[in-house]
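hi!! sorry for the late reply, been swamped w classes. u asked for the two structures so here they r. pasted raw, havent cleaned anything up. first the sequence of the first protein and right below it the tokens
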Amino acid sequence: MKFTKMHGAGNDFIIINLMDEPLPVSALPALARRLCTPKLSIGADGLMAVDYPTTQDADYRMRFYNSDGSEGEMCGNGARCIARYGYENGLAGEVQRVETISGTVIGRRRSQRMYTVRLNDPSVLKPDYPVEVDGKVYNCAYVELGVPGLPHAAVQLDELDTIDDDTLRVLGRKLRWHSAFPKGANVNFYKCIGPDHILEHTFERGVEDFTLACGTGSGSVAAALTVKGLVSGKDVRLTMPGGDLYITVAADESGVHDIFLTGPTNIVCTGEILDEDLVLTE
């Protein structure tokens, strides 16, 4: 089974092409769990499978699975990586339409390594959604991108640049499973550190830990802060452990729309999976 490994600002993915590999979709959750496990296999935040589109207006379909095998609605950094994969493997041109569970995503090649995707418009955006944990109320916004919505909590944390990792992880886990978020939530801690410049760390649902970057999380944070008037909405810089991403978002009387995520991609390796212990079951 051939694979490609890529990352976007440290958010890493394994890509399998179902157009070439005769794998049943039912095998993908088990495949994700195995391949994404460090030491036992390649290791990654998620698995993406390229498949034939089911709609007339898409070039191909992106199936996304978190490292725990759960299927995700969409992944922003994953979409940027798969847009490069699609372009370099002849699946689409410099502008392409990628089908996801949450809707069609538009990808655009900026240069060899820089790609932009238009994220799904918010189906839910609550800019002021305070959440209490252990007696402390956190300034939070809640955003769902696309339909069905990919849930994100944007949590202001002024001590984000000084808090220790273990303490932040405990808080992230409590918020990720908080009853205020019936679908669970990706928890995006943020701190405004300059004009249109945000520090962000994301505890991701499905990975159940922090990742080095989160594209849809960055889009959700920037969208919420644009509505609140705290950023301009144009080329907002999100600095995460894996690097910088840039968000441009439109917010007007019709709502929040046209969220564009731009950042780097990196092809880490290509190869063939020869895992003798791999058993593909649901």
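now the second protein. again sequence first, tokens right under
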Amino acid sequence: MSDEQTRLEPFDKGGRGLEGDTDPRRVITLLTDFGVSDHYVSVMKGVMLDINPNIQIIDISHTIRPFEIQEASVILAAAYHYFPKGTIHVGVVDPGVGSDRRGILTVTENYYFVGPDNGIFSYALEDPAYLWTRELRTVDFFLDRVSSTFHGRDVFAPVAGYLSTEEAAEKFGPIVSDPIKLANVKADMDSQGTIWGEVIYIDRFGNLITNIETGVFWEGELRVGEEENECMPVIEIGDNIIKGMSEYYQETLEGQIGAHFNSWSRLEIFVPAGNAAQTIQVKKGAPVSVRFEVSA
């Protein structure tokens, strides 16, 4: 590993607070798989603005692949803690809309998350600042008519709007003790310090983002060697072996496969100025392992 390898913490303490801002508008973000060609996103914004015209709405993304809950959870995890504390994050990738799946309000010390209980907020549930989750049951905070196909408009948008007016969170419903969490949020590690993870997201550049974050990586190193510079990480994916880590993309030779920690503290496999997914020919879910070799 490069001695200069940056090791960001996987969870940040959150952006600055809202107190003392020159612009006091409450921030609400939107993340959906609705696309931008239909009316769905604008209608959700209209519902929220009708409840509280003093909010600031930020779009994280509306081009999540349809029904891809894991993709949405990853994108949200990479973005949410850069917003001001008190931001309300609304996530709607909801293949179970209209069924008995719950709508939830998840709260950390810094943020609110509103959406379906299907794993989309898995990383918030893993945040050390996580507090609790409530089921959205109080119909007074929904639109008068709730459809079976558009809870983004009828439930989640109005809940976010009312939440932005300082309505107490406990009014929205009872505590949930078992919110749904995706199974592959964290990588596993065996007694020898070998880490077993997988590709959880492929970005538009073809970079392979894994569920191996810095914390488990450090622990694996410590199990093998007492000092960081004693260990050489060996990453395996498909038929490829990567020895050592790069600090930045161009530190790896063009056309070669490299690995580093990306900007949100996950192990990323890349080809500089190329496409790792095409080069390695792997898809989301591909297994990735990291073992540590002690230097002689």
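hope this helps!! also noticed smth abt the second:
The two ends are 15 Å apart (CA to CA).
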